[in-house]
Amino acid sequence: MNHCFVDNSCITSVSFHCDQKCGQQNHIPPNIPIFDGHIHLNPIIPKIQSDLVSVRVASPIREFHFINNNHKPDEWLIPNPSSFLSHVHVYPTIGIHPKYFDSKSLYQNFDDLKNYLEISRNDQNLKNKIVAVGECGLDETSMATIDHQIFVLEKQIDLAIHYHLPIVLHCRGTHLYRKLFDCLRSRISDRNMRLHWHCINSNANLHIVDLFLNEFPNSYIGINGSITYETNTERSLMFKNWLVDRSPFLPDRLILETDYPYLPPRNLHGIYDPSCALLATATYLSKTIVDPSQTILSYICSSNKNIKLVYGL
Ligand SMILES: [Zn+2]
Ligand SMILES: [Zn+2]
Ligand SMILES: [Zn+2]
C-alpha cells in the first residue's frame, strides 16, 4: 500500500490491481505506462529508494518511464540504468541550467557537454543514449547576468541542433519569456525542431507561450505540481482561463511532468512519490478544465504519446 493519496483518485491503482471497492472515482488500468516528462533523480539516490514507493513492487503491473534531467555540470554522471528495476526506464538529458554554472569552468563545461553528446551518438546501446539537451534557459534568480545566461543558452541550442536532439527549456521570471522566445526564433532555422518548455504555470507569459506553440509545430509545454499552487490572484485566474480556452488542443501539446524532488502537487497528500504525483497533476487538470471529452486517463495517455514523440522513445 502506498503512503500517499490524491482526492478522488485511487493511488493504489498506480502499482497494484484494485478491485475498485476502494470508493475512489478514478483508477489507472494496469498496463498503461506512466511517463514522467521531467524529473531529477541523480542527486538524491538514497532518497529515491524511499520515495519511488509505487514503482518498487514485487509484481509490477505497468512500466514507468522517467526523463531524467542532468542539469548541473558537477553532477553530469549519467546514471547506470541497471541500478533500476526492469520495469523502470530512465532516459538522461544533459545540459547547463541557468542557475548552475560557474563562468570560470564554463568552457570546460561546454567541452564536456560536447564530449558526452559525442559519446552518446556513437553508443550502440540504446539504454545509455542521451535523449535531449537541457534543461537550459533563463532564470531571474540566477547570479549570472541575463546576457551571460543567453550566451550559455545559445551554445546549448547550437549543440542540440548539431546532434539532432530536442531541447528542454526552463524559464523563471515572467518578463524573461519574451527574451527566451526571441532567442529560439533567431537561433533555430528548422521550425520542426522538437522542444519541451517545461514548468508552464500561472507565472508564465501566456501570450509568449501561445506564440511559441504556433511558431514551432513540434513544441510541447510541461505541466507539473506547481499548477496546483492555487491562489486567488489575477494571475492564477488568468492561467485557469487560458487552460480552459486552450483545452481543445491541449492534449496534443501537453507533457505531464513532476520536476521531482521540486514542486510537489498540493493535492498529493503524504509522501512525494513521483509516479503518484503525476496522477495528482492530471487529476487537478481535469478538475480545472471540466471537459467531458477529456479524463485523467486521457491526459496521461496524451502526455505519454507526446513524451515519446519529443524524446524519440
Ligand atoms: Zn481503488
Ligand atoms: Zn526548471
Ligand atoms: Zn527541472
Automatic annotation (TrEMBL):
Residues noted as binding a divalent metal cation 2 in the record, renumbered to the chain: H170, H196
| UniProt keywords, alphabetically | Metal-binding
Q: Which Pfam families match?
A: TatD_DNase
Name a GO molecular-function annotation: metal ion binding
Keyword check for Metal-binding: yes
Q: Which residues bind a divalent metal cation 1?
A: H38, H40, E135, D259
The answer to whether keyword Lyase applies is no
**Family named by the database record:** Belongs to the metallo-dependent hydrolases superfamily. TatD-type hydrolase family.
What this protein is called in its record is Uncharacterized protein
State the organism named in the record: Rotaria magnacalcarata
